[in-house]
Amino acid sequence: MDQTLVAFPQPTILETADPARLGLRPAALDRLCAIIEGHVADGHYPGAQIAVARHGQLALFRSFGAARIEPEPMAAGPDTLWLMYSNTKVVTAAAVWMLVEEGALTFHDRIADHVPDFARNGKGDITLLQVLTHQGGFPNAAQPMPAAAWDDHALLRKLVCDFTLEWTPGSRVFYHSAAAHWTAAVLIEAVTKTDYRDFIRTRVIEPLGLGHELFVGLPDAQSARAVEMHEPKDGRQMRLPVENTDEFRRAGVPGGGGYGTARALAAFYQMLVQGGTLNGNRLVSRRMVEYVTRNFTEERVDGAMGMPMHRGLGPHVRGTTPLIRGLGSIASPRTFGHGGVGSSYCWGDPDSGLSFAYFTNSRIPDPWHSRRLDIVSSAAHAAIEDI
Predict the structure, then answer these.
(1) What is the mean pLDDT of residues 243-271?
(2) Number of folded domains that form the chain
């Protein structure tokens, strides 16, 4: 993998506009920022970054607190890169969408059609759609994926093909936190004959103008921009041992190891709510966006989440259930997005044209984590003045 950055002036991802001109209430956005400032002041997480965009323009982009706290605090700023955790899944899925649109795959193909050894251990009939909607039947298969496989992709392919089933594919919905997107990465490599990280970068990230602010596989030269991740313990924020290494950042774990700014993810979701186009650059068709953001699992409860998650082919969808994870209770039913474990959420609302990204640098357990996500996301929806 070679993701060395060429030194050249970086394009403006999204033009900044006055929130009121975009039909957003400035006072409501101020209240949203005050909520996050309160979280930082109360020690819930060292730092955060938030972005809100609408109609192709950026209404809010702000950093809070510290990106790193050891050995000396380092303030979070506009160029700080945040560990996206499972927000990475939608970026990886976008590479699959492109391959489907180009005719290299269909969502109904069996993984074993392209990776024959994946048929081992009874997995021969598992489809790409089942994998992306968390119905594959092997949710715990890659926990953890050995670090040796991060760069040895022959080993990675063998380990993915060795996954064993925990239940009959398609019979349950259960979040595959890592295994599904390691499978997607192996599939991308089998079809394209290219390192999945390079394919995502050259075919998804760079065409959208996000090359300076979004990475699946962070080059060592950019490592100093990355936040350090923590978790609360005994009243302190403790550094996590794996996520704060260059090896992990470089790996580009496809279901949980991307890095980006909130501005980049707000722009990525602007592309989706605008039907596949950002700043005149089309990534996929409007029909593809409409398809992958459908609710394929209906009201079936996701066994890992304890609620219906309305799984699409990458993101999940708000729907009309009383409660949904991370997207905001008052969101439009068509709002779609994804989160990152204990730390973040990003989403887009095609009905209002709003996109939202919120990153923090501490993995906070429930119930506080889910409650604050509902508050923060609902506050962003509440800022919409008009449709």
Answers:
(1) 98
(2) 2
The length of the chain, given as a count of residues: 387
When pLDDT is cut at 50, 70 and 90, the band that residue 386 belongs to is confident
C-alpha to C-alpha distance for 78 and 61, rounded to whole angstroms = 8
354 lies in the same domain as 310: yes
Going by the DSSP 8-state scheme, the letter that residue 9 receives in this structure is P
Count Cβ atoms below 10 Å from residue 322 Cβ, excluding itself. 6
CA-to-CA distance for 78 and 58, rounded, in angstroms?
13
> Rounded to whole angstroms, how far apart are CA atoms 191 and 323?
38
Look up residue 159 and give its amino acid: L
List 68's β-bridge partners, or say none.
74
Which of the four pLDDT bands, split at 50, 70 and 90, describes residue 333? very high
96 and 39 in one domain?
no
pLDDT digits (tens, 9 = 90+) for 278-324: 999 999 999 999 999 999 999 999 999 999 999 999 999 999 999 99
Kindly state the DSSP code that residue 317 receives in the 8-state scheme: E
| DSSP H or E run through 345 | strand 344-349
Q: How many CB atoms lie within 10 A of CB 154?
A: 8
Angstrom distance (rounded) from CA 153 to CA 172: 29
If asked whether residues 266 and 135 sit together in one domain, one would say no
What value does the mean pLDDT take over residues 40-52? 98
Q: What is d(CA 358, CA 262) in angstroms, rounded to the nearest whole number?
A: 6
Q: The pTM is what?
A: 0.96
Domain C-terminal end among 197, 226, 246: 197
Q: Using the Cα atoms of residue 93, residue 98, residue 101 and residue 105 in order, give the sign of their dihedral.
A: negative
Strand partners, 308: 301
319 and 360 in a single domain? The answer is: yes
Residue 366 and residue 231 share a domain: yes
Whether the CB-CB separation of 19 and 55 falls below 8 Å is answered with no
pLDDT of residue 6: 37
CATH number for 74: 3.40.710.10
The per-residue pLDDT of the chain, averaged, comes to 96
Diameter of the chain measured on Cα atoms: 57
